[in-house]
Design goal:
By secondary structure, the protein is α+β, with helices and mostly antiparallel strands. It has two domains: about 80 residues, RNA 2'-phosphotransferase, Tpt1/KptA family, N-terminal domain (Arc Repressor Mutant, subunit A, Orthogonal Bundle); about 110 residues, ADP-ribosylation fold, CATH 3.20.170. Helices cover about 20% and strands about 20% of the residues. The chain has five helices and 13 strands. A four-stranded antiparallel β-sheet has the order 4-9-10-7, with no helix packed on it. Strands 5-8-12-13 form a four-stranded antiparallel β-sheet. A three-stranded antiparallel β-sheet has the order 1-3-2. The protein is elongated, with a radius of gyration of 18 Å.
Length: about 200
């Protein structure tokens, strides 16, 4: 089921058009259309997809019934590299709801980030969590294996004109500036996750 979940995630986030699908508003695809796809039709059922959605610890997917035709449809809640119209994102306009906003990365990437800032790369948004993995209410937004934690100065970033959004599974997203980057001036502090030692303080 893990392999199916990863294949489903890749389809909904990155590969729908290449597989011949046209995304519905909000990034949805009909489940029966997915099941007819060559990568799924012999290995997965609608019940399997429902189980994947229900057991996803990071709430990666939303599965709903279309009100007009009663067909089941599914979307990835965030992480897209393809253009998605009407994705269910809520603008984040102040710091009251999320006093802590963090991004997790790895030591091997840190030197590049320290020099160039945080980049969304080929995705539409950078991902942030409202706390560390395992803390109350923190479902997704960071891999549990991350080694370096970047604490964002959300107030300063908002004042600097950067846009932030909240996904359906409470992940904080930002497209960054016009170059797809959040500069280091918007970092509050950076710490080694294992030791708690500060890597850099801004």
């Amino acid at each position: 089921m893990i392999k199916v979940s990863k294949t489903l995630s890749y389809l909904l986030r990155h590969n729908a058009e290449k597989e011949g699908f046209t995304l519905l508003p909000g990034g949805y695809l009909y489940v029966d259309d997915i099941l007819s796809n060559r990568k799924f039709h012999t290995v997965v059922t609608k019940e399997d997809i429902q189980a994947i959605v229900e057991t996803s610890d990071k709430k990666r997917f939303t599965l709903v019934q279309d009100e007009e035709n009663q067909r089941w449809k599914i979307c990835a809640n965030q992480g897209h590299s393809i253009q998605v119209d009407d994705l269910d994102l809520r603008p984040l306009e102040n710091t009251e709801e999320f006093p802590i906003v963090v991004h997790g990365t790895y030591h091997k990437y840190w030197n590049c980030i320290a020099q160039q800032g945080l980049s969304r790369m080929n995705r539409n948004h950078m991902h942030f969590a409202a706390g560390l993995p395992g803390h109350d209410g923190v479902i997704s937004g960071m891999r549990s294996s991350c080694q370096v934690i970047i604490y964002l100065d959300l107030k300063k970033a908002l004042e600097g004109g950067l846009k932030f959004f909240v996904s359906a599974n409470n992940v904080i997203l930002s497209p960054g500036n016009e170059s797809g980057v959040i500069e280091t001036q918007y970092f509050f502090k950076v710490v080694d996750r294992r030791t708690g030692k500060k890597v850099l303080t801004y």
